Amino acid sequence: MRKCSVILFTAMLIFGTRAVYADITVIRYPRPAAKTDSHFDYIHELLAEALASSANKYQLVPSKATMQQGRAVHEMKYGTGQVDLLWSMSTDEREKALIAIKIPIDKGLLGWRIPFVLSENRQMFKTIRNLRDMENYSAGQEQDWPDVKILEHNGLKVNTANSYEALFSMLEAGRFDYFPRSIMEIWKEQELHAGKNLVISQDIALHYPAAYYFFVAPSKRRFAEDLNNGLENMVRNGQFEKIFLKYHQVAIQRAALKQRTVLELQNPFLNPANMPLSRSELWFQP
Fold first, then answer.
1. Is the pTM of this model over 0.85?
2. Which of 90, 141, 192, 278 could form a disulfide with 211 if both were Cys (CB 3.0 to 4.6 A apart)?
3. Is the pLDDT of residue 24 over 70?
């Protein structure tokens, strides 16, 4: 299914008009390590729409090998040609190394987290009222995700894994107590891992300031400009909001955030002064 999606997406970018373009720029993004990327369809529809009106034509293809975020950032920073485009949670460090397209493609949803827990522990967080109540529980995260440092900075225990898929098995085996996932990811992940003894806790949500941006390698500045201009046009004409709701409205409703105890966390790795917080149309509000 993914292979077909990549081919279709590429065709949309190259053959979106009747004209034939000899000058097509290849843009590579990291081949996901996960069997199914829960963001894949949404991200690619945004990209296709944003680049459709560009005078420059692009072919987007996955990297030859699977690649974790840290490796992708390194390849882009040093211009190796292995990766040109990444979609990821932002940090000040990543914004210094790469070109950040500062339109949060998640509208901040990535910072709203609800946890997977073992089925027999579904009531585990029922009495949680503040972060201090979480001190005896450990979270699971992939080792190079920015979330690791955010959770630890707020006094939460974190166990890490070398791969995303391993986290589900580790939680099931009791290696840690909960696996916090964004409300834009967790429902699809629940479907994909339905065979595991895991449920979604109904009692708490973790929240911290976060922005999920497209990042572009410094060597692909023209592509960054075209992508930024396309996304800005989408925000102005309402297409961005339309696509966002198409993929995420049901997830937001199912999360029922107003019925949960929300635990507010600090994110010292992303300077609010560098975020487009004054543009209310770019952010989700529960």
1. no
2. 90
3. yes
